[in-house]
Amino acid sequence: MAYSVVIATAVFSEDSAGAVWKMDFPNVEPLSSEQNNNSSKNDEIDVNSNMNANPQKTHQGSMRRSIPSPITSAKANTAADNRAMRRIIAEDPEWSLATVPLLAELCVTHVVGNFADHPKLDELLPKYKTKVLEKISVDLPLRVVAHLVTDEGYWQRRSKARWKVCDVSKYGGSWKRMFFERHLEHMVEHYVPESTDTAEMIGTLPLASPYVRHLNIRQLLPPVKEEPSKAKDDTSDTASDAGSDWEAPHMDHFDFMPVIQRLPSLESFQVTYGVQDCGMNFEWNLFQFTQRDCLGLSKSIRASTSLTSFQLHRSKVDDDKARVLISHLLDHPSLVELDLSHNVIGDSGARGIGKLLNGHSQLVRLNLSNNKIRSMGGAAIGHALKKNTTLRELNLGLNRLGDEGGQALCKALKENTTLDHVILTSNELSEPTAAAMAQVAIHNTTLRKVNLSCNTLGQDGGKQLQEGMEENKTIIELDLRLTQVGQESEYCINQILKNNKEEHRKQMLLDKLTVDR
Fold this sequence. Notes:
Elements: E1 13-14, E2 20-21, H1 33-53, H2 58-66, H3 70-76, H4 103-113, H5 126-135, H6 142-145, H7 152-162, H8 175-189, H9 199-208, E3 214-217, H10 237-242, H11 257-261, E4 268-271, H12 291-303, E5 309-312, H13 319-329, E6 337-339, H14 347-357, E7 365-367, H15 375-385, E8 393-395, H16 402-413, E9 421-423, H17 431-443, E10 449-451, H18 458-469, E11 477-479, H19 487-516
Parallel strand pairs: 3-4, 4-5, 5-6, 6-7, 7-8, 8-9, 9-10, 10-11
Antiparallel strand pairs: 1-2
Helix pairs in contact: 4-5, 7-8, 8-9, 12-13, 13-14, 14-15, 15-16, 16-17, 17-18, 18-19
């Protein structure tokens, strides 16, 4: 029995669930009428012969005869004909009954997509809240997420999307605090007076104020002033000889008062008046710290009652500006650390700082390194140290104290009972100061660390220091590098320091055991 078999691979149909299926048939050449008649006759002969040969298969043969011919079925079913078959294309080619999302997932997707206009977070269950926080965009307006989103994971994603380097350890382990502090610093550092619109900053301050603890301003841009154009027809010899009468404009920078007043939790503030990466546009005026800047900054620091640390370095602070600044810091309620290093403060400014130390501050650390303080300024600071009861660390390195200023400080250290760390490196000190420091080692019982490096103390000064250290039990660090004190004296002093360190370690362990009990 010869059949022309047609294998159906797929047919377009639609089931009760609405899914659309596609079935394709291979190309089938219709049989001619003569081929069809011959096939029918052969079918009849084969069937009769089979029935006579094996009567037991009669029932099976009848079943075979009941199967309709594929050719006949193909003619009856128009879908089997490629020429008559219709193609149905679904609206969503990716839709599948097997991947229909859950209603909860659809709701989460809707909340995420409309979060900017309709922020919903606290109303959600914890498991859905977590999904929303993982999917919401890091570009959402701060007014939407500042107070609403407290999840550190979201602020971590937002911080890493904006900055390549993110060291959260400098911000107390808080990603949210890091984002707002760096965001506010960026706005201040790129603010151009008289040009930048202040609306964005005013809108950001209420959002950032609860989270900002520290500000480190690395640059401050001056206002943009254009040089007035010269007259084109001015060709006189007088004008060319006299040159231009134009002077650089008075440089005023960002006013910190509106910012400091709106940051009630600010604890540390560092600022440098200068411009980074100015390149070929360098001008000295870009690094000018004006009187108006100084007065505005001083008032801002005085208004911040929560500030504990203030650093103003590399800003060309001279004596006049230092005295203005100190006058506003007198009796500050919370300031414990002051850093005015890398400026041009002289003796007059040092006298103002001496007044600050003389019972008008709670300073614990004072850094005046790399200034122009000489003997008179050192004497003023030394006089204040005799009465000061709060300062624990003093850095006067890279100044010009000389032996007169050094001896005045050593005389004050014999009476001071709070300082434990003094830095006098590179101050043009010599043997007289070394002899005075030896007396400090004998009488002072609170000093732990002393730095006298880069001073020409000489071998005689080294021997006097050795004699003083032999009676000292508290100093554990004494830096004598590049002082020419001699190898023998330096070795003996190091052995004394080693013993003092061991005794100090034992005392610390004993105190710890006492506290634990």
